[in-house]
Specification:
The chain is α+β, with helices and mostly antiparallel strands and 83 residues long. It is 48% helix and 16% strand. It has a two-stranded antiparallel sheet.
């Protein structure tokens, strides 16, 4: 219907022109299926920011990120023990 046509037009505009589009909705139900970033607001303040769908899925990047994250945590633990 109209909702899907609108979503397709916005997605196409974003893809072809690189336009950043900001949409506001009372619920994340429809937005989370095509938005790349979800920003939640509570009484006019940002309450949380979550990733939406990612267009590029690269498993190698994810495993590298996990490795770096674990490495950082180990360093933090060592620093805590020294104090």
């Amino acid at each position: 219907g109209m909702e899907k046509d609108f979503r397709n037009q916005i997605t196409k505009m974003n893809r072809t022109l690189g336009t950043t589009i900001v949409l506001s909705a009372p619920s994340d139900m429809n937005l989370k299926h095509f938005a790349s970033v979800l920003i939640y607001m509570d009484h006019g303040h940002i309450s949380k920011i979550r990733p939406g769908i990612s267009r590029k899925t690269n498993r190698n990047n994810k495993s590298e990120r996990k490795h770096h994250h674990n490495h950082r945590n180990k360093k933090k633990r060592q620093n805590r023990n020294r104090r």
